[in-house]
Amino acid sequence: MIALLLFYLFFPAVILYGCRKFSWLDKIGSVMLAYAAGILIGNLGLFPTLSPEIHKLLTLDAQQVKEEASTYVGSGTWTPKDHAAFSIYQLQDTLMSASILLALPLLLFSTNLKAFLGSARSTILSLGIAVVAVSAMVVSGYFVFKGVYGDQLWKISGMLVGVYTGGTPNLASLKMMLDVAPATYILIHSYDLIISFAYLVFLLSIGKGFFRWVLHSCNIPNEEENITQVEVTQDSRTLLASKESIIAISKSVMVAVGVVGLSALIALQVPASALMVTIILMITSLSLLASLNQKIRNLKFSFETGMYLILIFSLVVASMVDIHSLAGITPGIFAYLAWVVFGSLLIQLVLSKLIKIDADILMITSVAFICSPPFVPVLAGALKNRNIIMPGITIGVIGYALGNYLGFLMAELLRNF
Fold this sequence. Notes:
By secondary structure, the chain is mainly α. The chain has 19 helices and one strand.
């Protein structure tokens, strides 16, 4: 357990060193390397994995399983192997949550609000295009794949609109609203993880270059604002070993912890169903308020520290992907999800070309919808463009708010066909 924790915390530093040392690794990119390393370590069989039964329980009600884990072990329901696998899952879940929640304020402290306001029109247009694209692919897919899952496809369609305009919280909410069977929910949730991961890898590898070539991106920061792939600059690497850098990083982290702590206190006052939306909204709002203070905005290494945490997040997420889950796939439903994800991306590309939306805005909008706001900084780092983080998170939060409404309305509409 300790060895795995150390791997998650310090292997990103190895990746950054490798990218600095070898130009071919730098071309691949640190985010892609983190994903590759995560998938490798998670599928080598080096540590126990969750049984299908426990995985189903976690998908349906993770909080209840966490609260009753000791009871399962004490009663003999779980074997020692199950307990060990669950402990590793808890470590991964904690690291994943902590890294992204701390990374968000660190990345936003240096936000250029003028740049964000300047791109507001493109952001709103891109948001509208994304809603149209997802809705169009869900409706068309409903008729293309009608009959592949009995008479419940209308419920699945509603959940897809919710999850691909909002996120997993919307998927869970729509399960309750539409009275979706647990087996169906688990199926959709599992396939969503696989397809969304494949989609993200596509964007991080060949997709970003292709979209910038088609749309001729003009939203890339100039040299003074430019960030590297997630790596810090050569000067920053030298300073990271100095007392000055340690003090600067400590200051940034302390302010970030304060923002996350205050956001969590506020979020605890709302229902559990709105917890994720509230905490991301509060972190975003408080971080932007903090960025108005010149001392906080000019904190050294805050952005670099945030991007290092994004590497940890990427490594952990990838290590939780089970490639063996591809076995036994229900082709029709899997194809429906892929139809929606990649089809909506194609529609966004065509409409963005016509309306002249920037390539980076298009991609960050799509990621905010398909993968949810926590993955926005991952793509921003790969695109070397910090200016799109704020628009991306804003779109993602709006998507959370819209997801339940759009999903329920879509389901009720298709129910009659």
